[in-house]
Amino acid sequence: MSAGETRRLSVPATDAGIKAALAALERLWAEQGVSRAVTWPVDVSLDEVLANVVHHGLEGRGESAQVELELSFEPGDPPRCEVRVADDGPEFDPLSAPAPDTTLGVDERPIGGLGIELVKRLMDEIQYERRDGRNHLRLVRRLVAMEH
Amino acid sequence: MEIGDEQVGETRVIAPRGRIDSVSSSELERHLVARLDGGARRVVIDLAGVEYVSSAGLRVLLLAAKRLKPPQGALVLCGLGPGVRTVLELAGFTSLFTVEPGREQALARASGAKAP
Question: Any residues with CB less than 8 A from the CB of A35 and at least 6 apart, and which?
Fold first, then answer.
């Protein structure tokens, strides 16, 4: 992204790390004066992606593992947000995970498995790359209200 | 996360506030499980104060729905803002839950009154 604001941070692969990352995103929204009505899909998606990395990819490594984040905001009409997440866990392409069946009833519905599907439906673009022994995920969304 | 909790007649009304994400959802889960273990069978979850919900929060709602299946139980959701509603719809969850606009309707529904 060209003009705009970019934050880089590194958080431990723990719940506290997820909290810190979501708080950083929240600060960026507040400073840029964007409404929660258009930012929540990005908040939800970052939570899903980090929960996946922390609870699966880097599971059990806790404080010793770091997740690198880059949060970018580009003003405009509409403004645009890009989130990059990198970790050195085992290779995992979330985009290759099979989509859950969202038509099953209460009894048949497995608990979990929905996170990545939500990210796919909430973001405009998602790219995964395995590079230099690390997982790199890039998420982009134009900050407009969800059309639904 | 703050969690409002009150008994209205036969129904327990639980009103989480803030974000229901992968970290805070465990608080809501503990709260709900304690109520269900304590014998609550008619429950309204009022989501009016919730900014957003991620899949970890959906998991907690699903868990409550499984334990409150009719006819022995009743679970009604209400107060869904646009973001919360969209996530529930994208996940195909709206068909799994009884959803009412406001708390009054939700209470009427949970207590067994016919839907308007």
Answer: none
